Amino acid sequence: MLSYVLVTAARNEEEHIGNLIRCVEAQTVRPLKWVIVSDGSTDRTEEIVREHTSANTWIELVARPKHTQRDFASKVKSFNAGYERVKSYHYDIIGNLDADITFDEEYMAYLLDKFALYEKLGVAGTPFVEDSSAVYDYRYTNIEHVSGGCQLFRRRCFEQVGGFLPMKDGGEDWIAVTTARMMGWQTRTFTDKHFVHYRKMGQEYTQGFRGAFARGRGDYLFGNHPVWELFRICYQFGNRPYVLGGIAILCGYFSAMARREAKPISSGLVSFTRREQLQRLRAILRKLLAFRRIPSQSGNNASQVPGRPAGCWSEKKNAKTKSVFRLY
Hints:
Helices cover 40% and strands 17% of the residues. It has two domains: 194 residues, Spore Coat Polysaccharide Biosynthesis Protein SpsA, Chain A; 89 residues, no CATH class. It is of the alpha/beta class.
């Protein structure tokens, strides 16, 4: 079994941090070290963590000074403060955990098995649910992206991509995962398990029309191809807030383009992202066209896996190899 360490940046998480700690304590494979960094918390977050450190010497609390700043750059600085505390350990995997999640007792062992099985796997994670509902539809969402709430990195991969970059408007998790793929690592969301995310994405920041506008602007800043963005906008028309959400994303994207806002990522990463998006778009369109042509089948000759929508990834065992990925 591979060894691992964890780092969590937390700010005013007294409602959730205790549940997360109990989840990690219950893991069948515990981490060598877990550093929880309080990002200037003003509630009972630090007190709750201290209640667990006395009985678990592998948990350490790092308290950063109180401050009024609240953005993604501050979160990354807190993570980096925790990362400094684990650098000297001999470990294979490093995990970034949000403070407001929970998962089952086999969760970490499940992901460690994936790293042991796939030597080129650089980043791994699982889907997550909010309010008992899956957030992403993996028929359309990139299965190679790993959500920032719980990301496990192979140590060599994490060091090669340079860790997380402080970004005031966020996106540091996306940059790290995409850079890993650009450098030749495999990244994957494994769908046999999931974690629960208790605070909805972005609720502490902008929501509604302003939030959708900010997402559109972010799409431009992180290099989304214009053609890909138009399809994304059309897809958003069918989700709440209906129509208005898509219009807001469109306005955010093309207003940033009109102002020629500077992108915070390298031109190489922009080019790589756009190539991936166009490849995925062609693959989605081919599947949709093929699905329309395939006649309804039944019995043992059915080509579609029962109960599995077209376009889903699954992991299939093969008699001649350890395991291979199949796209249905």
